[in-house]
Amino acid sequence: MSVSTEPIQLPPPAEPSKRRPLPRGLRRPGTIVACGWLVLVVLASATARWWAPFPADHQDLGHGLGGPSARHLLGTDELGRDIFSRVVTGGWISIGPALLAVVVAFGIAVPMALLAAEHGRRVEWGCSRVAELLLALPTTVILLAFVGSVGVHVWLIMAVLGLLLAAPVYRIVLALAQSLRTRLYVDAAKANGVGSFQVNLRHVLPGLATTIAVQAAQLFALGILIQAGLAFMGYGPAVPTPSWGGLIGDAQQHVYDDPWMMVPTGVVLALTVIAANQIADSLAGERERTVPARRPARGPGRVLPAAAPHSAEQTSDALLEVRDLHVGVDDGHELVTGVSVRIRPGTVLGLVGESGCGKTMTARSLLRLLPDGVNVTQGSIHFDGRDLVGLTEKELQAVRGREIALISQEPMVALDPMFSIGYQLTRPISRFRGVGRAQARRTALDLLSQVGIVDPRRVLRSHPHELSGGMAQRVCIALALTGSPKLLIADEPTTALDVTVQAEILSLLRSLVRTSGLSVVLVSHDLGVVADLCDDVAVMYAGQVVESGTVTEVLDDAAHPYTGALLSANPHIPQGEAVPNRLPSIQGTVPAPKDWPNGCRFAKRCALVTARCHEPIEAAPAHGGGTVRCIHPLSTATAAASEPGATR
Description:
This protein is an alpha/beta fold. It folds into two domains: about 35-290, Orthogonal Bundle (MetI-like fold); about 320-410 and about 480-570 and about 580-645, P-loop containing nucleotide triphosphate hydrolases (Rossmann fold), CATH 3.40.50. It is built from 23 helices and twelve strands. It has helices at about 30-45, 50, 85-90, 90-120, 120-135, 140-150, 155-180, 185-190, 195-230, 245-250, 260-290, 360-365, 395, 410-415, 420-435, 435-450, 455-460, 470-480, 500-515, 525-535, 550-555, 560-570, 635-640, and strands at about 320-330, 335-345, 350, 375-385, 385, 405, 485-490, 520-525, 535-540, 545-550, 620, 625-630. The strands form two sheets. Strands 6-7-8-3-9-10-12-11 form an eight-stranded mixed β-sheet, sandwiched between helices. Strands 2-1-4-5 form a four-stranded antiparallel β-sheet, covered by helices on one side. Helix 1 (about 30-45) packs across helix 11, helix 8 (about 185-190) packs across helix 9 (about 195-230) and helix 15 (about 420-435) crosses helix 16 (about 435-450). It is elongated. Residues about 1-20, about 285-310 and about 635-648 have low confidence and may be disordered.
């Protein structure tokens, strides 16, 4: 069946509004009233000296402890001072220090959390120990001790409070920052050569914004209460400067002879705290609706050890040559062992195998985008005359995106939901090509047209959630082309797409290879896709390449029982062949790395297994320039692929 790739003409979309509305939570009537109340209190306090009926320290001893009247709207205290004027004037000294505590807490906690999430276990261990020390300190005792040694300085006291509150804020922000750094769009940004600071600034920090806002609103309310409590105990502003806590303390002395004194200040304080909590609740509800789906945890890539000293130089006609690649985890288990492949300019290499065979781990090791705790432990990755294994993270930024780019298998997760497609395309174009915003936008439109987007201007204005899966994958391909790379790593680029869109994406990749001379490493489960698109193929099983060669040689004359079993399990039955009662499948499952045997790793599932198969087996030449990791004669191995004992 042929699939047409002609663009479909669509009606022009309506021009979207350039004004972005406020989040739904902040448009609720209760939240609007809460925000209005806080703004009113701050403005009224800041301008009280010009409009308040009386100065805050004005005394009228003849009218002490007076109730509300036309002259004194909220009554007077024991010295005849106007309560309304004092409540309004004391608003800023009650709110301002609480804001300072919030700024100090987040100013310390957020950078610590970002550094810990970025640099891994060692930095996280140090930052977490500091946070635990702060958490162990009794807040009230520390504040009172500070007052005793330094004196009553409200702003300094609240700054110390902010330092103590930084510890719980750090714990919350760290957990979310670590989660955000495992998102595919962060890996995609790193693959495009974005540095760690820019990754934090553009992708991690915006994802933390709602959580920071929620926690800040809650800590602001807590700071107001703590400052009022200190002022109530006499550790507030010096007399005669009013504060809400001090006014409540004064009213407490007359709770029996004039209980009204407690009401005005208590109501204002309660309403302010309730308003802050209302804003926090609204932001929290908004966060629950907007947090994108998570993918399985994958940590940031780490600095890898230098290549083994015995690594040979790159073959002259190969763009990329991987030799004896070993990838392992910190606990000693290896995930990939002895992988050797080479890619010539303008060709496509397919990595094929079941899930758990190490295909994606091998592909991502080329860009050093490995999970936290996973490293290249041996071997070399020669690319265009350089060994990538020995490069530092900063040196790799000159390679990622510019010379080697990545297309992930989940396009909707590889794009950052916080930003428009235009922003995500034009920023790397400006960085890679050194052009201005206008030229970057024109280049982005050209790239979207090149990958088959019908209406590139509309897509450029859109956000990822407004695109279909096929369009999102096309955008990801355009994003990978922003740096004009020589090598493209396509990690199962059609897995999440329907059959029609798969054909279009494969046709697009084939066209890019043909017209631009691009080389591609294609990770796939589908032998049909490999046969259609690839020039060479490497069949992987349990972290090893068990067979490699040209696509024609390997698929037409499989030399390893595993390759033959994969071909026999193909659901596409040739014309004229009887349909079997049951589709053949390979017995058992791929063993976990900790269960790998010393000999052939396919032995437990192979019909040709002998005693020699339990001894170490080296790769032998096959298919001209390819290899096969099997001790049986090629003809016997090929015939065994179709034996009943090889399937169940």
